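Submission sheet (multi-component)
Chains listed below:
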Amino acid sequence: MNGMNPPHSDDPAVALALGELVPDDLDVADLPTELLDALAANRIELANTELPAPPPDLVRRWDAALAELPPLVPTRRLAPVHRLVDRRSTRWAGGLVVAAAAAAAVVLAVPDTTAAPVPATPPPAGQLAPAAPLALTSKDLPMGGQDYGPLGDPVRRAGCLAHVGAPGATVLGARQVNWAGRPGVLLVLPTGEPGRLRALVVSPDCGPGRGEVLADIPVGR
Amino acid sequence: MTRSDAELLRAHLAGESAAFTVLANRYYPRLWSTAVHHLSNREDAADAVQDTLMRAHQAAASCESGDSIWPWLRQILRNICLDRHRRDRARPAEAVPGEVLEQIPAPRNPIADHEERMDVFAALEQLPSEQSRVIFLVEIAGYPVHEAAELLGVAVGTVKSRGWRGRKRMAELYRGEPPTLASATEER
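Outcome: structure written.
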C-alpha cells in the first residue's frame, strides 16, 4: 500500500482491502495505511481458508441419503416425455384426460378427501387394481392441481418419488385423497406414451427413504 | 486423476451412480459451515445441507456453473434456508445460540502447519456472532451483501456496518491490538 498519498476507493489495492463490507458513508481517506494492509491480508486469508470437515456422523448421514437416490436417467431418454408434457401442458385439463379415461381398461376410483373410502381393500402396492367400475373423470384426476398436502416441500417430494421408484418424475397434478380408508396423496405422472398416465397414491409420510405406495395404477390405453 | 466439477456433473447426468456423491463430498465442509452460519442450530443446519444435496442431485441439469458448482450449491442452500426462516417465523423459535458458536469453524487441535488458519479463525471467533456471521457469509461463502442481508433478515446498511466493524476488529486482533471501545460497542 502506498503511504505517500491518502487512500482512495478507486485504488485497486484499497478496493481489495475493503471489499463490499464497508458502510456507504465511510471516508476512505481517513483510514490509516496500516489498517488497509491488515484488512487486505485478512480478506485474502478468509477467501482462501480451508474449512474444517463436518462431524463424521453427519457425513455418514448425507452419504447414506445420497446413496439411496437412484442414478439419474440420462437426459436423452427423458427428453420425449418432457416434450410431450410441455407441448400439451396448456390443454391438459381437457382432451387428453378425457381420452385417457375413455380408453382406460382398469379401475381408478379416486375418492374425494371428504368422501367415504371406496375400495374395501387396497390393491397390493405396486400392482394394478383389479377390474371394477371405471370412475375416472377429469375431476378425479387432478390435472394441473397442486394440492400436495404433506408433500408440499419439493425436496421431500423429490425424495418420495425417488423412494417409490419414480425418481425425477414430472408430477402433472396432485391431490390429497383417502384410499381404502387410509389418507394418501394422489400423484399423476406421465408415462411417455400419449394417452397413458400413471396414478400413484403414496402414504402421507412419504419422503426420502420412507413412505409406502398405496396404489400404482396405469390409466389409459 | 481427479475429475473436475464439470466432469463429475456430466457423469452424474449420464447416470453414473457415484459421481454426484464424489462431487458433493468436495463441498461438505463449505456447505456445513455456511449452513451453520445461516441457521440457529446444528440439526437445522444438518437438515438444510441434506435438503440441498437432494435438490442438487435431482436438479443437476439446471446447473450452469463453470469451473466450480459452489455458486449454484450456495443458491440452493440459500433458498432452502430462506424457506426455513419463513416457516420458523410461523412457529415458536427454538434457537440454540450456544450451538452456533460451537459450530463456528475454529480449529480444535491447531498444529503448526495450520497456524495461518488458526489465526484467521481465532480472530473470527473473537467477534460477536452478528459480526462473524456477516463476515463468513460474504467473505468466505461469497454471498453478495444484499443476499446476506436477506438471509440474516436485516438491512443492507446493517450488514455493511456489522461487517465493517468485524473486519476492523479482526485486523486489530491480527496486529495484536487491544479492542477499541468503538469496535466493541459501535452500533449503526
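Remark: DSSP finds ten helices and no strands in chain B.
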